[in-house]
Amino acid sequence: MRSVNPIPGNPWPHDMVIHVSGSPQPLWELLWLREAYALQPVGGDLPPFLVRTPAPATRPLDGAARALGENAWPRLWHAASAHAGRTQDPDAFPRLLEMPPGAPDRAQLLHDMIGPTWRDEFGDDAFDDPSYTERERSTPEERAAARPHTLADNPEHRDLEALIPAWQSGLTTIVTIPCTGEHTRRIGDNTLLMTAGTRADSVAYRRALSSFT
Description:
This protein is α/β, with parallel strands linked by helices. Helices cover about 45% and strands about 10% of the residues.
């Protein structure tokens, strides 16, 4: 939301733009993998579990693959989160569309846009599972159900009083993940990562926004 000039009586600053997005695919895939394959990564600052627990993968990882995955998971999570917190090049996608398939720079540009993923190190085999297909199918429906139905229901309008100081401190982007509880992390100069439940709850959301100021 943005207007060229101030609108009398509108409390929303006319030049304030806040982008809100659901979890990027690399983050969602890591969250799914951790639970579908019952990985137990160890490390600080890891996100909570998914609100909706996925079905177990039909082909569990063997001991060696599990150890490799558990060791890599925290590093991949932090790398993918850091990428989600960066300001993206708005011209990247148009450039990608202009490149013919197989162009030397196309793969690199696509990787730069998506960021680090599990697939980079372990390939696609883990996602060739009915649990992943089922969960992918339900995600668009869940996102549609979570959208506010009225302007008053919109968390940014509901908690505008707390949002404005965060924006004045540099906040431009909020990335949500479908995980349980209250979890908020700053993942870039202008971005907050939080659970969808944190954003949905006014008290928790105000607390999250205050952490940016």
